Amino acid sequence: MRATAGAVALLLGASLAATGCDQAKEAAGGIVSSATAAAASAAQEKMNEVKDGVNATGDVKAGPTSADGDRTVAEVTATNPKDKTADYTVWVNFRDSGGNLLDAVVLNIDGVEAGKSKSGTARSNRTLTGETKAEIQQAVRH
Question: What is the pLDDT of residue 75?
Answer without folding.
Answer: 98
